Structure to design on (258 residues):
């Protein structure tokens, strides 16, 4: 059992693609802390790979949730409600942009690429909160998402995803205001560069990672384990008075002026 006990908590983690996913690291630590989890997968194409990751976990529902379809999101949380009755934790770790929009001049971003990135990476948090928060009405709960410093600074090559993360961070604050009286907290972790399936398609990613290690106060990059531990805190009752926050897990890079 992890030092933080979540054995009385039920949660759902959205955004696991493979073993390198930040969402997978978070799911593992929540599971180790005793939380009863449902795992969402996007579609049948990724279901088997996700199922293999949790094959050794007892009684872990796998639930399809395509966040581009509101009816699908609603059906997913209806299923969670049927299986768990209530919910304490929602982890939203979902982002997507077309490969061609993650490099080159931002000014060349097309309308459809812009719409797609904002829809999947930012808007998706709204229906998840809309259909998930009613399951938290009995005891309150924690909704957590993942962001990046490109929401506030320019990272060449990150392009439209920076715009999407800016929208996502504003949503965190507005949802925190909307849901606070239900004792539902909404927070985000702003993680430093991490090697994931998504990061590999970002142009200049290696430069981002190198510069982060050179200029951050701790002179190194972060690990997925460090992000997972921060998520464990924000999903637990230890963070009961925290909502609307963007918690930086970046070895201090965000404080530096040069």
């Amino acid at each position: 059992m992890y030092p933080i006990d979540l054995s009385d908590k039920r949660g759902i983690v959205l955004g696991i693609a493979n073993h390198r996913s930040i969402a997978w690291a978070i799911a593992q630590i929540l599971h180790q802390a005793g939380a009863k989890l449902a795992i969402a997968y996007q579609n049948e194409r990724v279901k088997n790979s996700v199922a293999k990751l949790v094959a050794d976990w007892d009684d872990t529902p796998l639930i399809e949730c395509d966040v581009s379809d509101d009816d699908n999101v609603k059906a997913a949380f209806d299923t969670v409600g049927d299986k768990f009755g209530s919910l304490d934790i929602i982890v939203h770790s979902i982002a997507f942009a077309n490969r061609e929009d993650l490099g080159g001049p931002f000014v060349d971003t097309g309308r459809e690429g812009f719409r797609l990135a904002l829809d999947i990476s930012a808007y998706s948090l709204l229906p998840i909160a809309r259909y998930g928060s009613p399951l938290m009405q009995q005891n309150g709960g924690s909704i957590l998402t993942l962001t990046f410093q490109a929401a506030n600074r320019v990272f060449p090559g990150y392009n439209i995803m920076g715009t999407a993360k800016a929208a996502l961070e504003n949503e965190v604050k507005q949802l925190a205001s909307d849901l606070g009286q239900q004792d539902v907290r909404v927070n985000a972790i702003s993680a430093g560069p991490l090697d994931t399936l998504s990061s590999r398609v970002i142009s200049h990613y290696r430069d981002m990672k190198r510069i982060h290690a050179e200029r951050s106060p701790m002179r190194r990059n972060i690990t997925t384990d460090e992000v997972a531990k921060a998520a464990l805190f924000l999903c637990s009752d230890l963070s009961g008075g925290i909502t609307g926050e963007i918690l930086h897990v970046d070895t201090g890079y965000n404080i530096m002026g040069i």
